[in-house]
Amino acid sequence: MSSPFAIIAGVGPGTGATVARRFGAAYPVALLARNPANYEDAVKDIEAAGGKAIGFSTDVTDPKSVKDAVAEAQNQFGGDKCAAAVFNVGGKFIIKPFLELNQEEFESGWEANGRGAFLFSQAVLPLLLNSTDLQYPPSLIFTGATAAMKGSARCASFSTGKFALRSLSQSLAREFGPKGVHVSHVNVDGIIDIPKTKEWMKDLGPDGKIKPEAVSISCCIICDTVEQD
Q1: Ranges in the chain, pLDDT < 50
Q2: pLDDT in the model for residue 229
Q3: Which of 96, 195, 213, 220 is most buried (most C-beta within 10 Å)?
């Protein structure tokens, strides 16, 4: 009998990789990112720790790319059981006055977080629905942001995408929760401490940013599958 696997979309050097490493302690893990360089180190770390991980170069805004990645993960792991699916795609963080924002820039926020989450959910939900007999309820987790709760000035693109992501998660929770799939939106209310944010708001001090490890622990607590530190 094949083991259930986990699938993480939006793997980068921060939250996505940390979440993947945590799930990798319990399950085979499929790591999805547009750029292979974003998941290669995490794959090596998981395998070095005795786990199994495979990375897939994936554009979450492209239907074929998402379907192919999920299908190949099933093929590689030899099963149709998925314990957890995490959508951690950030999209472009555009800060720009609204009247200077062009249509392409505005739509980029929705394409990553709206369309991307839609395509990912449609690809993984059949696997999650087929996994309600596992020890723990299968989980579909979306990582959000402050922008999902509050649209800040000059952030129309990013906040529109994150609002869409949160709304989708609420709709899916109400539809699939009664069917045994746990759907949740993890609101990351702050700046995550990753390489690209090192120069952001230095005046906050060493404890002013959220550690990626803290987000990964939250995701694992939701799934109730990975030992907490």
Answers
A1: 216, 226, 228-229
A2: 45
A3: 220
Instruction: Tell me the average pLDDT of the chain.
Output: 87
Q: How far is CA 8 from the centre of its chain?
A: 6
Distance (Å, rounded) from C-alpha 141 to C-alpha 207?
A: 26
SS (H, E, C) the chain: CCCCEEEEECCCCCHHHHHHHHHHCCCCEEEEECCHHHCHHHHHHHHHCCCCEEEEECCCCCHHHHHHHHHHHHHHHCCCCEEEEEECCCCCCCCCCHHHCCHHHHHHHHHHHHHHHHHHHHHHHHHHHCCCCCCCCCEEEEECCHHHCCCCCCCHHHHHHHHHHHHHHHHHHHHHHHHCCEEEEECCCCCECCHHHCCCCHHHCCCCCECHHHHHHHHHHHHCCCCCC
CB neighbours of residue 75 within 10 Å: 9
CA nearest neighbour of 144 among 156, 125, 161, 128 = 161
